[in-house]
Specification:
The complex is a heterodimer of chains A (597) and B (132). By secondary structure, chain A is α/β, with parallel strands linked by helices. Chain A is built from 23 helices and 20 strands. In chain A, a hairpin with a 3-residue loop joins β3 and β4. Classes of the chains: A alpha/beta (597), B alpha+beta (132).
């Protein structure tokens, strides 16, 4: 039995608060009362991505009509006019804020179309283990076009004109990088793909490598043609076994089909690609360390200049680009630099993939044109903060980045704007924090990470980051002083100015940016010895509220260190010296008599 | 795959593949099998789909794997594409939802729970002749 009409009610976490579930139940009742139960189905659906300003929303199939801001009083009209008489309820349709036009269906609304999948165009819609699927989506046509219709200089000019900038975090103009390698003298040159993706919380590159491996292979071959190289390497972290497997499979398939190897597509161009596996070192995401690691040496950076484009792998001109940068190449070649430049901002063309994580409802990947605001990404595509809590900060750029606060939410995202605001776009990690996150603890987390990952070669990073980490741990343990705050600032600046590579140069960003924007939290930790967010356990105290305690002994019985004393029916007391702040008592108490603060 | 001998051959192959896909008359079930999808149980869902389709005797349905669909919060996710190209994505797919998808959505076009509204434009769907 097929339904004549289907009504989809958006019951995303945001809309649920505005009564969407109740709305759905009421709608079902009206439909039943009108005898339409067998003709009309009502189904719950996920978020339409509008952010609270337009909910609750209802979509009617098969016409795909979209109604917004639906209230209980509108339901009868929707049933009578639309479901029974096939007449759209005009005052519930979405009006485009720019053109003032009424939009009938969800396919026409702007708020749902803010993402443009260029880098992630194939991941999620092709089988990454089938070469045919990639070819069906115009795979390898860009390589064919370059080899048969474009000179090497024309390819480089096209990439330069597109305005593509490195997506690994550096933002260096890709076309210019290729041109340097092209101009460097020498017969032997190399193409390297940086697939190390070391930033905690970043998984953009992984999704391309696992979901669309051929796009990277094709782009590397295009680069090889342009700069004059016949050998490529993908340096991929060993922690990505599935990506490694799919890449190896893709390389073998491409070779078999004559898309890699000797005389590609019947031309004189040869290009081979091999994998090199990382071994868990964050610093090997830095290009000179990466190259040394590939050469069999310890992953340590060397000063630039010389840049890899002049002297890289085995001392030869080498082009190193990030996975996401490469994934853009086939599209730029096929559609043209002008088309690519029409997306994004003037100085940052194209899109950027962000790995949205933390306290957002819709964790996952979003790919947006440069210039999209943080607010749009977090509250529209991200579906807002979990549990209806208040947004506090968003950390961008991984350990090299900083935290942005509420005042920065309307910043259009691009390479330069975020730096101005005290952070950076980095490789695309975006960790959202709410009122329960302690910003001092966040800074400490990133510094602890940096200390672990510092290669140790230069003093500012080796010793400096360790000192920063020690001070932050001191503060979160309740032993910080105002002097420590000053030390953090001075040390942070010095390390940034004197470290040898990007890891050290940006190591103090998390500290300096949180100190600037969340100074009151640092002060609370140092002066009041309190953690306002309630996260730093050393600064928390669990105490029994005497008025509420009925002496049931539940807390005393679960305490793992016997820190709670009190007889049955008597007020209980927690010994602060013995207490290990595990919180078991708070969970066990049925009378809300345990206070944490 | 056999060696592709020239750029023209590649273009013809692409055209043949596009034609074959459009004319296949098959319903495609695509299960997200990137690391996130697999960690959430995508492999079991993939196998169960194949198993269930066989017991239901549905022959014109193809089950394939794909990479990350970007809806990490709703894994396992599945995309169902009808023979005429209409596709819908369902999230939080467990075995009972697989049953529902097969008996209600694939056989009857009835929307079941877990529908995720696609919230992007894919460059693959923008015709190249448009230029922008």
């Amino acid at each position: 039995m097929s339904y004549r009409k289907q009504v989809l009610v958006c019951v995303g976490p945001d809309c649920e608060d505005s009564g969407a579930k109740l709305l759905k139940d009421n709608l079902e009742k009206i439909i039943k009362d009108k005898g339409l139960k067998n003709e009309v189905k009502v189904a719950k659906t996920g978020c339409f991505g509008c952010s609270r300003t337009k909910g609750p929303m209802i979509k009617i199939l098969p016409e795909r009509t979209l109604y917004i801001g639906v209230e209980y009083n509108d339901l009868t009209r929707i049933v009578e006019d639309d479901l029974i008489n096939n007449k759209r309820v005009e005052d519930l349709l979405y009006r485009d804020p720019k053109t003032n036009e009424l939009k009938q269906s969800i396919e026409d609304v702007d708020f749902n179309k803010k993402q443009i999948k260029i880098v992630t165009r194939n991941a999620g819609s092709i089988d990454p283990e089938k070469l045919e699927d990639y070819i069906e989506k115009d795979g390898y046509l860009a390589l064919g076009k370059c080899l048969t219709q474009m000179s090497r200089e024309e390819v480089i000019a096209e990439i330069k004109e597109s305005g593509l900038r490195g997506r690994g975090g550096g933002g260096f103009p890709t076309g210019l990088k290729w041109e340097f390698a092209y101009k460097s003298p020498g017969e032997k040159k190399y193409v390297v793909c940086n697939a190390d993706e070391g930033d905690p919380g970043a998984f953009m590159d992984r999704s391309v490598l696992e979901g669309d491996p051929h796009s990277v292979l094709e782009a590397m071959a295009v680069c090889g043609y342009a700069i004059g190289s016949d050998e490529g390497y993908i340096y991929i972290r060993a922690e990505y076994p599935l990506a490694i497997e799919r890449l190896e499979n893709a390389i073998a398939q491409a070779k078999e089909a004559g898309l890699l190897g000797e005389k590609i597509l019947g031309t004189d161009f040869n290009f081979n690609i091999q994998l090199r596996l990382g071994a868990g070192a964050f610093v090997c995401g830095e290009e000179t360390s990466l190259i040394h690691s590939m050469e069999g040496e310890r992953g340590e950076p060397t000063s630039k200049p010389p840049f890899p484009a002049a002297s890289g792998f085995w001392g030869k001109p080498t082009n190193v680009n990030n996975v996401e940068t490469y994934a853009n190449i086939p599209v730029i070649i096929n559609r043209g630099a002008k088309w690519f430049k029409s997306i994004g901002t003037e100085k940052s063309s194209g899109t950027k993939v962000f790995a949205l994580a933390g306290k957002v409802n819709n964790v996952g990947l979003v790919e947006v044109p440069m210039g999209t605001t943080l607010r749009e990404v977090i509250f529209e595509m991200g579906g807002g903060i979990t549990g209806g809590k208040k947004f506090k900060a968003v950390q961008t750029g991984g350990p090299s980045g900083g935290c942005l606060d509420e005042g920065d939410l309307d910043t259009p995202i691009d390479f330069d704007n975020l730096i101005e605001r005290g952070s950076m776009m980095g490789s695309g990690g975006m960790i959202v924090m709410d009122e329960d996150d302690c910003m001092v603890s966040v800074a400490r987390f990133y510094l602890d990470f940096t200390v672990e990952e510092s290669c140790g070669k230069c003093t500012p990073c080796r010793i400096g980051t360790k000192r920063l980490s020690e001070i932050l741990n001191k503060i979160t343990n309740g032993n910080g002083t105002l002097e420590d705050i000053d030390k953090l600032k001075d040390l942070g600046v010095v390390i940034g100015d004197t470290a040898l590579c990007g890891l050290g140069q940006t190591a103090s960003n998390p500290v300096l940016s949180t100190m600037k924007k969340f100074n009151e939290e640092y002060m609370a930790h140092v002066i009041d010895k309190k953690c306002p967010a309630g996260q730093c356990t050393a600064l928390l105290q669990y105490t029994v509220t005497p008025d509420k305690c009925i002496g049931c002994t539940a807390c005393a019985r679960v305490c793992p260190v016997n820190a709670i004393s009190g007889k049955v029916k008597e007020k209980h007391v927690i010994n602060q010296e013995t207490c290990i702040k595990c919180g078991a008592c708070e969970s066990a108490c049925k009378f809300a008599a345990i206070f944490k603060g | 795959m056999d060696r592709i001998k020239s750029f023209d051959d590649l273009k013809s192959l692409r055209d043949d593949l596009v034609k074959a896909k459009n004319e296949s008359g098959l319903t495609r079930v695509s299960v997200s099998m990137a690391t996130c999808g697999i960690a959430a149980g995508g492999k079991e869902i993939f196998e169960y789909f194949k198993e269930k389709l066989e017991t239901e005797g549905l022959e014109n349905v193809e089950v394939t794997q794909t990479g990350c669909m970007s809806y990490c919060y709703a894994e396992p996710t599945v995309e169902i594409t009808s023979p005429d190209g209409i596709s819908r994505i369902f999230g939080d797919v467990d075995k009972s939802r697989v049953d529902e998808i097969i008996t209600k959505y694939i056989e009857n076009d009835e929307i079941v729970e877990g529908l995720i509204t696609k919230n992007y434009i894919n460059v693959n769907d923008i015709s190249q002749k448009e230029g922008s």
